[in-house]
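Final report, Chapter 2: Outcomes

The project's central promise was a pipeline that accepts a single protein chain and returns its three-dimensional structure in a standardized token representation, suitable for archiving and comparison. That pipeline is now operational. To close this chapter, we reproduce one record exactly as it appears in the project archive, with the input sequence first and the structure output second.
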Amino acid sequence: MPSQELATEASFPGVPAASSMPDWYPALLHTVAQEIRGGRTRAQAAANAELLNSYWSIGRQLAERESEQGWGAKVVTRLSADIRTRFPEAKGFSPRNLRYMKSFAQAWPDFPMLQAPLATLPWYHQIALLEKLDDAATRLWYAAAAAQHGWSRNVLTHQISTRLHERSGQAITNFKSTMVPADSDMAQQATKDPYVFDFLAMSERHTERDLELQLVKHVEKFLLELGQGFAFVGEQVRLEIAGDEFFADLLFYHLKLRCYMVIELKAVKFEPGFLGQLGMYMAAVDDLMAHPEDKPTIGLLLCKEKNSVVAEYALRGFNAPVGIAEWKTSLADSLPDELVASLPSIETLEAELAAEAARLRG
């Protein structure tokens, strides 16, 4: 009987009395308690998927009750207290988390049919998707990427903050004309434009060597920005050609494409002449370093800025696979001036954070 669910009175400071709840509240508590019990049993077989299904079901009931009855926050507060009384060892049923469950159900009305890859992500990944994104299609894009690459929650939020979905696969390349279709598609998706190196600390007047040293110093973060599949081989890689020495800025090996990738860094705007030097390095790596089973080396030219039309023309007559993209030390570098002007300054953010910290300390 639903009325029996209220037999044990929850006692938490600031929680509304059970007598102040609507007459349908016992039924809500009863069904939520049943869902928790059932969810726990099923979770032994498929912990994460079942947990999400349970949270979604609870959230749907909350959303439906809110829509039908128009109740306020006190119901969620009361429900949280009663659940924690009946399941004292349970975690995750705070008022805040119950509201996340409601948002989760509202964001994914067809969640039971969606399942993979969304259902493979832990709950705190789901919260990040809810908090950081408003569009369902974009949430699904990041859910699929997080599941595919095994991102932690921190990595997921970082990728969202740098708008990876807008940058992924956007470099200007000639891959379609220089690689077989399966490889060209994979190589294109491995690119970005722009690349965001927000972990760098450099002065306004920096050289290409300064940039290179900073990227090597932060190679783990650099690899994260490059994406999955890249293995760092070396910097200033020596290439001897007919007795002359040349040095490639950065050399990587792509484990899925099974080929080397030469990355050349430029602290200036793209110029077509850059391709000649990069092409020579790529040919040298093919001859001097690649194994017979390796596929042809790919080149990636990262410039401070570029004229996209000029870059496309420059690649038309180039027979080796090359991508051209910009690099930024801040995402704001690539935003329109009017949008940059609307962003808060560092000083403003620091002041707000200090005020919030003071408030939390009481």
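Archive annotation: The longest strand covers residues 230-241.
This record, like all others produced under the grant, will remain available to the consortium after the project formally closes.
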